[in-house]
Amino acid sequence: MPRANHKVASHRRRRKFIKLAKGYWGARSKVWTVAKHHIEKGLQYAYRDRRRKKREFRSLWITRINAAARLNGTTYSRLINALSVKGITINRKVLADFAMNQPQVFTAIVKKAMS
């Protein structure tokens, strides 16, 4: 039988991974090697998707602004250009929120930008 080195440290390290795998199905939450693989893969996805989330939200905001702008007789690109020409600095997140929740405010912004 091989001699165990650093038993306490390695046991704690494994226990930490098994704790992270809580809720996984079958061997993914029980077997050390399987759990380790799935935890590491999950952390890779989490790292990637924290960046992807920002892209997806910006895309959603642009879609909402475009839909609301078309209801007001213009397009997204014309509206954004008019806002920059007039020097109105308002970000897409806030603009999309106005388009969704306060259409009268959005309409006022469009009129101000297009005038």
What is the topology?
Blueprint: H1 7-20, H2 32-71, H3 76-86, H4 92-101, H5 103-114
Distance between the termini: 84 Å
CATH topology-level name: c-terminal domain of poly(a) binding protein
Based on helices, strands and strand pairing, what is the structural class?
A: mainly alpha
Tally of contiguous helical segments? 5
Instruction: Specify the CATH homologous superfamily.
Output: Ribosomal protein L20, C-terminal domain
Tell me the major beta sheet.
none
Mean pLDDT: 92
CATH architecture classification? Orthogonal Bundle
Strand content: under 5%
Strand count:
0
N-to-C SSE string, H for helix and E for strand: HHHHH
Judging from the principal axes of the Cα atoms, what is the shape?
A: rod-shaped
Word description of this protein:
- The protein has 115 residues and is an all-alpha fold.
- The chain has one domain: Ribosomal protein L20, C-terminal domain (c-terminal domain of poly(a) binding protein), CATH 1.10.1900.20.
- It contains five helices and no strands.
- Helix 1 runs parallel beside helix 2 (32-71), helix 2 packs across helix 4 and helix 4 packs across helix 5.
- The longest helix has 40 residues, at 32-71.
- The mean pLDDT is 92.
Question: What characteristics describe this protein?
Answer:
115 residues, mainly alpha, c-terminal domain of poly(a) binding protein
In a nutshell, what does this entry contain?
The protein is an all-alpha fold and 115 residues long.
